Amino acid sequence: MDNIMDKLAGKISAQEIINANAAAEAAHREQIENQNRQYEEEINVLRQNAHKLEDRLNNIEIALKDLKKDRDEADVNVQELDNAIRELKNNLSDRLNKSDEATHDVGVRIYRNVQAAVIDEQKKQLDEIKEDLKKQMESIRGEFTMLVRQLDSMQRANRAKNRGIMPLTVIILIATIANLALVVLRIIGLV
Question: Do 141 and 119 touch, CB atoms closer than 8 A?
Fold first, then answer.
């Protein structure tokens, strides 16, 4: 190991070692100076921020004092508002009670008026339905009379030919009359 050191020492001269140390020290000094400058800049920024924070704290103190004054005034206003609200609640309760009574009375009157109007309208509709039924009944009677005449004429013509058609015709006549009665009952609303 000593041999290696001797060989290395022989290759590197003392002046070169001094120069290398000086260069390393200069680089180290420059690095320290750069760090010092950077620290000074950061300290300046911190000072500026501290001044800003101080201003903000002063503003907050002023705002808090104003808020305390406003709170005291607000407490007085809250008590006045509470009293006013109680009075309004009492007045509103009285008015609501009176309004409920008036609304009930008006509702009863409206109900009676609507009921009377509905009854009148139902009478009118029933009268119209009766008139329609009379007209339809007259029309049906006319058609029925015509059918009876046709049946009579057909019966006379077919009496000689077919004696079995008579019961069938009577059944058809009875079915027609039953159908007519059902139609009339449906129109009246009984079925």
Answer: no
The answer on pLDDT for 9 being more than 60 is no
**By the 8 A CB rule, do 187 and 133 touch?**
yes
**What does 36-69 look like in DSSP terms, one character per residue?**
HHHHHHHHHHHHHHHHHHHHHHHHHHHHHHHHHH
The number of helices, as runs of H, and strands, as runs of E, in the chain is: 3, 0
Report the SS3 class of residue 160: coil
Q: Dump pLDDT digits (tens) for 94-147.
A: 877 777 777 777 777 787 877 877 788 888 887 888 888 788 878 777 777 887
What token pair was written down for 1? 């190991």
CA distances from 170 to 27, 42, 57, 154, 180 (A): 137, 123, 115, 12, 15
What's the pTM value of the predicted model, to 2 decimals? Answer: 0.29
C-alpha dist (Å) from residue 23 to 13, 14, 17:
16, 14, 10
Looking at residue 149, its amino acid is R
